[in-house]
Amino acid sequence: MLTVASFNVNSLRVRMPHLTGWLKSAAPDVVLLQEIKCLDEELPRMEIESLGYQVSAVGMKARHGVALLSRAKHTVELRALPGDDTDEQARYLEAVIHVPAPHDRPVRVATIYLPNGNPIDDAEKFPYKLRWMDRLIRHARELLKREEIVVLGGDFNVCPTDEDVFDVHAMANDALCQVETRQRWREFVNLGYVDALRALHPSGRHYTFWDYQAMRWPRNEGLRIDHLMLSPQAADLLEAVGIDKEPRKLERPSDHTPVWVRLAA
């Protein structure tokens, strides 16, 4: 079995005690982190490696940034999303996990921090989000041609349907729920990727993010914006999926909480 989890930590250095505690208790095999908000050289690498993980990251000072942790050896293949050499924002990292015997099957993973896009009337932010999604769709299509076990996971900043939003009216002008955003999400899914959570829980409100403001967490007024998307080869191996709310209950938590899948890899 192989457990792959995604966690937007919203500042790795601030949330290190939360992350290390969660790694010890949950013990995922592969972890996709977003919003690490530090340069590569500032990464608390030794603390993570002491828990048995290989660490790779694409960092950025005080903003964005993604990282990949794995118990098995991994090889980084991409440190940026293809399609725009001028894009310097640290939002994508792709690697191949070398799953050891008896399975001995490579698993391709990517940690993704898709642009938020707000406010939607900003001349740069929302168009950048849509262009980034277009690039992701093109790359995701190419990955399917490999016929590999692929997990694309992270903070996609997309609420796929109204059921993924605590209040549709409150989010009506938010980039996460716009028609253009959801159209691109459907195009992504229609390539053949499977939303792991909806594969096993096709209905119901299952949130991964609760804003710090307005008592959103105690009222369970959240959003589902963290996703694990599976290639058909990965979906065939899907055994379980879940949202771990324990880290969100801690003092000074991230506004996100981990989502995970277990594959019979």
Find the count of extended strands (DSSP E, 2+ residues): 12
Name the CATH architecture.
Answer: 4-Layer Sandwich
Distance between the termini: 5 Å
Structural class, from helix and strand content? alpha+beta
Element pattern in H and E: EHEHEEEEEHEHEHEHEE
Domain module tally: 1
Layout of strands and helices, then pairs:
Blueprint: E1 2-8, H1 12-26, E2 30-34, H2 45-49, E3 54-58, E4 66-70, E5 74-78, E6 92-98, E7 106-113, H3 125-144, E8 149-155, H4 179-190, E9 194-195, H5 196-200, E10 226-230, H6 232-235, E11 238-243, E12 259-263
Parallel strand pairs: 1-2, 7-8
Antiparallel strand pairs: 1-12, 2-4, 3-4, 5-6, 6-7, 8-10, 9-10, 11-12
Helix pairs in contact: 3-4
Question: Notable features of this structure?
Answer:
6-stranded mixed beta sheet; Deoxyribonuclease I, Chain A; alpha+beta; 25% strand; 265 residues
